[in-house]
Specification:
The structure is a single chain. The protein has 266 residues and is of the alpha+beta class. 33% of the residues lie in helices and 19% in strands. It is built from 13 helices and 7 strands. It has helices at 7-10, 39-48, 60-70, 76-81, 114-117, 122-125, 132-135, 137-146, 174-177, 186-189, 224-237, 242-245, 251-260; strands at residues 25-27, 53-55, 86-91, 100-105, 152-161, 191-201, 208-218. A 7-stranded antiparallel beta sheet has the order 1-5-6-7-3-4-2. Helix 11 (224-237) runs antiparallel to helix 13. Mean pLDDT is 89; it is low at 130-134.
C-alpha cells in the first residue's frame, strides 16, 4: 500500500514543514478510494453541511462521468455519497489555460468554505498557503497539464485541530481554540487531522477529480515515532505557516507532550 488509510500510516508520507512540495506518489486503481466507507456517516455529513455541495453548469457532464465510473446513478453529489472521500472537480474553460474549481461535494472540509472557492483558478484557491506562489504554483500547473487519463496520483498532509470532528471550520482565533491545551493534556485535547488526497483525469470530459479523504485521531493515540516527528515539524511551521495553521497557539504544548513521552515503547 503506497498510501494508507489512517493518520498513523499517512503521517510518515506527509510533508513536515520546510520547502513546499507536491509529494505525489503514483497509485493503482485499488488504492484510489477507501475500500470500506461509512455511508451513513457520509449521508449525515452532507445533511448537516448542505453548503458543501456547490455545482456550476460545467460540472454536470464530468459529474455524470464520475458517477458512471463508480457505478452509481447521478452525478458528483451521488458519487461523493457513495465514498469516504470528499470530491472536487476542476477543468479548463474554453480559451483558458488554467484549471478552475467547477464543482464540490464536500462534507468534511478542513477549515475552508466551498462557497468561497467556487469558480476560482488553482492559484487563487491556494493563495492562503504561505509560499505556494513562489515554491509550488508552476509545478502544480505543469503536473495538471501533463496528467493523463487512467493515471492516479496521491499525497497527504496534516493539520493540528482542536476538535476530533471530521468537519473542521475554525470559529475562533487559534489562541482561543487551543487555550485549554497543556503539555499534560495535549494527548487528549490536540487532534491530528490528515487529508489523503488523490488526483485523476477523466477520459471523456478531460476534467480532473480531486478527492480528499479525512482521517482524525487524538495525538495520544498515535505512535510515539509519529508524535516525535510532529514535534519536530511544528518547530519549522512556526516560521512562514504559523498564521494559517495557528501553530504558535499549540506548539509548546505539543512539544512538551512529546518530550514527556520520549522513549516510550510504541
Amino acid at each position: 500500500m503506497t498510501l494508507g488509510f489512517s493518520v498513523d500510516k499517512l503521517l510518515p508520507k506527509a510533508r513536515g514543514g520546510g520547502q513546499l512540495k507536491m509529494g505525489l506518489v503514483k497509485l493503482s486503481e485499488d488504492e484510489w478510494l477507501q475500500p470500506d466507507p461509512d455511508l451513513e456517516a457520509r449521508a449525515a455529513g452532507f445533511a448537516e453541511f448542505p453548503q458543501g455541495v456547490q455545482l456550476t453548469p460545467n460540472a454536470k457532464r464530468p459529474g455524470e462521468e464520475l458517477a458512471a465510473m463508480m457505478g452509481v446513478e447521478g452525478a458528483l453529489p451521488e458519487a461523493a455519497l457513495a465514498a469516504h472521500e470528499d470530491m472536487c472537480l476542476l477543468t479548463q474553460l474554453d480559451g483558458e489555460e488554467h484549471y478552475r474549481l467547477i464543482g464540490t461535494a464536500v462534507a468534511w472540509p478542513s477549515d475552508w468554505h466551498p462557497t468561497d472557492k467556487m469558480g476560482l483558478p488553482l492559484r487563487a484557491l491556494h493563495a492562503p498557503i504561505a509560499g505556494y506562489e513562489e515554491q509550488l504554483a508552476s509545478g502544480v500547473d505543469h503536473f495538471m497539464a501533463k496528467l493523463k487519463p487512467g493515471q492516479i496520483y496521491g499525497r497527504c498532509n496534516w493539520f493540528i485541530a482542536p476538535t476530533g470532528a471530521k468537519r473542521w471550520i475554525a470559529d475562533a482565533p487559534a489562541s482561543r481554540a487551543f487555550a485549554h491545551v497543556t503539555p499534560d493534556n495535549a494527548g487528549e485535547t490536540l487532534f491530528v487531522r490528515s487529508e489523503r488526497q488523490t488526483l485523476g483525469r477523466f477520459p471523456e470530459t478531460g476534467a480532473i477529480l480531486f478527492t480528499i479523504g479525512i482521517y482524525v485521531e487524538p495525538l495520544g493515540s498515535l505512535s510515539h515515532t509519529n508524535v516525535a516527528a510532529l514535534s519536530s515539524a511544528v518547530r519549522s511551521l512556526l516560521e512562514g505557516e504559523d498564521a494559517r495553521r495557528g501553530t504558535g497557539a499549540y506548539a509548546s504544548a505539543l512539544i512538551g507532550y512529546a518530550e514527556r513521552h520520549k522513549g516510550d515503547a510504541d
